[in-house]
Amino acid sequence: MPNDDAPRAVVTGASSGIGRAVAERLLAGGWRVTGVQRGEAGIEHPAFDSLRADLSQAGEIERLLESLGTPHAVVHASGVLRAARLGELDAAAGAAMWQLHVEAATRLADALLPRMAAAGRGRMVLIGSRVSGGMPGRSQYAGTKAAIVALARSWAAEVAERGVTVNVVSPAATDTPMLADPGRVSSQPKLPPIGRLIRPEEVAALVAFLLSDDAAAITGQDVRVCGGSSLPR
Q: How far is CA 208 from the centre of its chain?
């Protein structure tokens, strides 16, 4: 039976990739987890419950927010990547990425961060990307990920005095199903200098730390898990 006194985290994108790794890491650490995804999460655990929602739709987010209460933590890991170079940029693809990465994060933060601040505790982690500083062929994607860094720093400043932290975790190329997405065929991932892709579990470990009491003094930061990709070469 789940421990009703255990902290509860809301994790978006919990059906695969980084979101699923985060959910499983938190469950192993004694958290209760509410997974939010479009389909079935595929996680069987007594402390896990699943909510189906398409976070690219504002109406579904509003419906979702009514059922989330005041969690101890929120991890927004839902994401999509569409790549294109100048002259081939797709406005619809750009809008879809903005809706999922930026607008969904904004609606979640606008509703849940004030609730956590009123409770005097809380954590929010947004999954960003190492390419937020810009990368050829990924301008629209990079723009959305840069936006969430600015949002996170702004929100962190508003709630820091009330026991709530907001951070971004930005991985380099990570071994997730997104790598096989046809929408990124024109921009293949670059292998980090460590000689392999980042593992979702490595990203999840950092997220779990940022949600812990030991990370109470870390807020407004963009922490990279890049395998050396951000180092000068």
A: 12
pLDDT > 90 in the chain, percent: 82
122: alpha, beta or left? (left if phi > 0; alpha if psi -120 to 50): left
Give the 3-state secondary structure of residue 9. Answer: strand
In the chain, the amino acid numbered 27 is L
pLDDT tens digits, 201-230: 999 999 999 999 999 999 999 999 999 988
Contact status, residue 121 vs residue 72, Cβ threshold 8 Å: yes
Question: Over the range 40-61, which residues count as b (16 or more CB within 10 Å of their CB) and which as e?
Answer: ebebeeebbebbebbbbeeebb
Q: How far apart are CA 165 and CA 99, in angstroms?
A: 23
Classify each residue of 11-24 as buried b or exposed e, where b means 16 or more C-beta atoms within 10 Å of its C-beta.
Answer: bbbbbbbbbbbbbb
| Catalytic residue check, 141 | yes
Q: Which of 76, 77, 81, 141 is catalytic?
A: 141
Please give the mean pLDDT across all residues of the chain: 93
Cα distances (angstroms) measured from residue 106 to each of 14, 126, 165 = 19, 11, 15
Is residue 81 within 8 Å of 183, Cβ to Cβ?
A: yes
Task: Name the nearest CA neighbour of 178 among 77, 31, 95.
Answer: 77
Q: Which stretches of 54-199 are DSSP H helices?
A: 58-68, 91-98, 104-119, 139-159
Q: Is the dihedral of CA 6, 69, 222, 193 positive or negative?
A: positive
Which residue is it, tokens 């406005």?
91
The CA–CA distances, whole Å, from 124 to 12, 53, 189, 229 equal 12, 19, 27, 25
